[in-house]
Design goal:
The protein has 108 residues and is mostly helical. The protein has a domain of 68 residues. The protein has four helices and two strands. β1 and β2 form a beta hairpin. The longest helix is centred in the N-terminal third of the chain and has 25 residues. The N and C termini lie far apart (78 Å). The model has no long low-confidence stretch (mean pLDDT 85).
Length: 108
């Protein structure tokens, strides 16, 4: 990836980080915090890729480790979104449950 694309993506991620952090501060929702954390990790990843590409930890580049963390938080954020959009169907009955005696006696 060329320097131009790294800088452009870094700018896009910084803008998203600012917007989602402001959204989190206003709404105080955990899902917004996770999205903000995702963009923070991406900003750090691309910053390291731009200014410190040789830094290593555990035989991996630091920017790769930060990007893996961003992938994990993105998956968590999507899982929370799916859970919120499609809640599990409830087994609630509209009629009251029969008493135990009615079930045993056959309703007599």
């Amino acid at each position: 990836m060329t320097i131009f694309w790294i800088r452009l993506l870094l700018l896009v991620f910084v803008i998203h980080l600012i917007l989602f952090t402001r959204r989190f501060v206003k709404r105080r929702r955990g899902s917004d915090a996770i999205v903000s954390l995702t963009f923070l990790l991406l900003v750090l990843s691309y910053s390291c890729r731009l200014w410190a590409p040789t830094w290593m930890a555990f035989d991996l580049a630091i920017f790769s480790l930060l990007r893996y963390g961003a992938w994990c938080t993105a998956v968590l954020s999507l899982a929370l979104l799916v859970r919120r959009r499609w809640p599990p169907k409830s087994d609630r009955r509209t009629e009251p449950l029969p008493a135990i005696d009615e079930e045993i006696d056959g309703g007599k």
